Backbone:
């Protein structure tokens, strides 16, 4: 919970000694409230003040790191319920569940390693493997974990067992990988917290329902351990939406410390389409780790796209890089179109040019990610700038004609463009991308 | 310390809109809580799903989707009956895409006949959609509304460019109306105001916020929907209270992910599953943001979403 300057001021020495660099303690308190200064600057702050302000400055939902090194996954630290208020901070992780009784542990683990795909310039993947102690035997579990780690060295590990002996056995292979132990329940909580503390790992606290989970996390925090991930045992979509919403609200709006932790969700179903849909619910509704029973490529592709979409910054348009893209087998006589680099504009125009089946050159111009009309209105998609871009792009060496198709919404630019691009013919294309297939087909038929 | 469930207090309620007549009529909307939060409000109606059919064969649909309807899609009447009787459709959405000047440019009279024939063959509610050419839709939807008189259809889409004629047509034949604006909260509000100023009852409007496919801007639709719903519930903004419809299939089944064969995209997996999953996941996103009505194409995607809706309400 954010504190006001006045609340902070009450805990300062009130000596106006200026050692912090600010003229008065109140001025310093205001800077602290605005997060433009830290308490370290005050040499006379009491221990009580440090403890109070330290607790108040903690994020309402704790950040948890699973794994080690540059591929470690950080989740939590969310600050809002709705993405239009502010960007969702740390995208959830996806995990593939593997049983220690499976005969194809290496192959499954390898599929996690190989899951990386590129979308809109970002490399995205399934980050985690959840090894489940289905055998009930600690040695079998430890061996399975070792196999999975060997086959997928870059994946984070979830140790899915409620048996402390199995965790202990597995940790001998993976403690340096900082796995997520999954987890503690009412019966094993002391042993699990001690193991997690000892290995420096994070720990799932699992109980039936929010009330029971909150009681258990209070106990765990009381033992001096805070690297917690919550599991309320919600497995049905209704319970997931209701419970996860209540947890996020309690942590953000009511300051309930016992629920200020990320959520793990098990979106497992024997029907792969239902599993994907269930995982979609978890991604949209506040889960930070989503465990799947299967990561077929088609399924992962959709979930990764959903996660990427919902975790984008609503204030910053997604952009694609400036380039002249070749669509289909475009040759030197193929038409040349220009548009802006707002990712939606690019996707829609590209899709319709592809649908036309007319090989084309698509010039995508850097306009700070603004769409055609907005970029034009903001002076970033003007005749002078388009002309300069076309001349510097090197496209003249790739095509045998000098005709540029511009979006119908900026038809007004055609005269000025012909002046600035001597020898070029400027053709006004359709306003909406969905008219491009007919437009391009007519054009090639006429040629 | 016992956990106190943090509940929101809502001041408004989503309008309830009934579509169709007789025992198969469908009610949508009516909820007074954010999506699926029944612990703090009531959700009297489940979100509904309409199967999309077209007045002309769907040559531009991906092959995997065309194959599903290959025995019936040459005839909209057979297609409608197949969806109702074989697939268990709760509603049918007839898109008069063949009337588009760039397509077959079918006449308003031809469109009206198709509407009449389809209505004669089904008893589930019908959604009548134009070709999204604002000018042509104004004529086509007028004839279609007349032809469907008395069946309490949902007709659209009324847009800024053509709402006057479309609203007048829907009003004259007693239909419900889809009002679509360009992915913007304020434009959606403004269009609803303009429509009600013509004397059209606000309780007969369904808002189309403008959909987009997963991976192609779904987050914009998602946030516009969350903001519309928040305005209706928290601020009790009556002009934002209509239930929301998402035209899912139309946006999904033209993106690369639903069309590219595995041979071209080896890391994407089989195109058949990918397309179904893409449509279902897109629909799930809209449900989480407050959708009351989904227009969809693939039966397997519909089945998946129906199972989820049953598990959510």
Residues:
């Amino acid at each position: 919970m954010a504190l006001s300057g006045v609340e902070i001021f009450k805990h300062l020495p009130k000596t106006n000694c200026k050692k912090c660099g600010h003229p008065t303690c109140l001025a310093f308190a205001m800077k602290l409230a605005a997060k433009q200064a830290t308490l370290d600057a005050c040499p006379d702050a009491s221990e009580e003040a440090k403890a109070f302000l330290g607790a108040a400055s903690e994020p309402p939902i704790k950040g948890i790191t699973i794994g080690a090194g540059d591929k470690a996954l950080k989740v939590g630290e969310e600050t809002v319920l709705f993405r239009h208020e502010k960007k969702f901070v740390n995208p959830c992780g996806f995990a593939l569940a593997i049983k220690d009784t499976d005969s194809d542990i290496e192959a499954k683990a390898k599929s996690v390693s190989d899951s990386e795909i590129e979308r809109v310039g970002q490399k995205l993947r399934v980050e985690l493997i959840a090894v489940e102690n289905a055998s009930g035997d600690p040695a079998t579990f430890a061996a399975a974990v070792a196999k999975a780690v060997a086959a997928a060295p870059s994946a984070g590990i979830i140790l899915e067992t409620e048996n402390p002996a199995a965790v202990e056995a597995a940790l001998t292979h993976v403690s340096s990988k900082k796995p997520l132990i999954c987890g503690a329940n009412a019966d094993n909580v002391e042993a699990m917290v001690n193991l997690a503390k000892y290995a420096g790992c994070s720990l799932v606290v699992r109980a039936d329902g929010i009330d029971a989970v909150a009681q258990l996390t209070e106990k765990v925090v009381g033992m001096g351990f805070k690297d917690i991930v919550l599991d309320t045992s919600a497995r049905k979509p209704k319970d997931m939406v209701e419970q996860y919403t209540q947890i996020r609200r309690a942590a953000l709006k009511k300051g309930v410390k016992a629920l200020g932790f990320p959520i793990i969700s098990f979106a497992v179903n024997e029907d792969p389409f239902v599993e994907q849909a269930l995982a979609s619910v978890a991604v949209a509704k506040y889960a930070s780790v989503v465990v799947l029973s299967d990561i077929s490529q088609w399924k992962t592709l959709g979930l990764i796209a959903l996660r990427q979409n919902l975790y984008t910054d609503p204030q910053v348009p997604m952009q694609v890089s400036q380039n002249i893209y070749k669509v289909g087998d475009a040759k030197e006589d193929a038409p040349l179109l220009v548009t802006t680099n707002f990712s939606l504009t690019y996707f829609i125009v590209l899709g319709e040019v592809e649908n036309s089946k007319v090989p084309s050159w698509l010039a995508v111009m850097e306009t700070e990610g603004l769409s055609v009309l907005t970029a034009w209105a903001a002076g970033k998609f003007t005749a002078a700038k388009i002309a300069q871009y076309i001349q510097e792009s090197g496209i003249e060496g790739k095509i045998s004609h000098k005709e540029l198709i511009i979006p119908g919404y900026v038809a007004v630019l055609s005269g000025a463009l012909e002046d600035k691009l001597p020898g070029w013919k400027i053709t006004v294309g359709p306003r909406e991308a969905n008219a491009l297939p007919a437009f391009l087909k007519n054009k090639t038929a006429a040629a | 310390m016992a956990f106190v469930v943090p509940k929101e207090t809502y001041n408004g309620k989503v309008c309830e809109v009934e579509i169709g007549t007789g025992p198969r009529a469908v009610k949508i909307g009516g909820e007074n809580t954010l999506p699926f939060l029944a612990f703090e409000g009531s959700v009297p109606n489940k979100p509904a799903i309409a199967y999309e059919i077209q007045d002309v064969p769907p040559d531009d649909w991906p092959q995997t989707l065309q194959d599903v309807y290959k025995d019936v899609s040459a005839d909209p009447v057979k297609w409608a009956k197949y969806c109702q009787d074989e697939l268990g459709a709760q509603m049918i959405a007839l898109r008069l895409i063949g009337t588009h000047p760039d397509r077959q440019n079918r006449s308003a009279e031809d469109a009206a006949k198709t509407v009449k024939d389809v209505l004669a063959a089904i008893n589930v509610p019908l959604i009548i959609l134009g070709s999204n050419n604002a000018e042509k839709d104004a004529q086509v939807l007028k004839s279609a509304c007349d032809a469907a008189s008395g069946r309490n259809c949902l007709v659209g889409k009324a847009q800024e460019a053509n709402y006057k004629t479309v609203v007048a047509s829907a009003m004259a034949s007693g239909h419900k109306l889809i009002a679509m604006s360009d992915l913007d909260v304020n434009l959606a509000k403004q269009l609803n105001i303009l429509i009600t100023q013509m004397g059209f009852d606000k309780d007969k409007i369904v808002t189309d916020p403008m959909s987009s496919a997963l991976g192609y801007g779904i987050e914009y639709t998602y946030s516009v929907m969350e903001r519309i719903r928040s305005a209706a519930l928290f601020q009790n903004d009556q002009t934002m209270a209509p239930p929301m419809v998402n035209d899912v299939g139309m946006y999904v089944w033209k993106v690369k992910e639903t069309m590219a064969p595995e041979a071209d995209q080896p890391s994407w997996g089989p195109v058949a599953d990918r397309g179904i999953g893409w449509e279902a996941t897109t629909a799930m996103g809209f449900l989480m943001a407050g959708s009351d009505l989904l227009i969809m194409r693939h039966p397997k995607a519909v089945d998946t979403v129906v199972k989820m809706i049953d598990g959510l309400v």
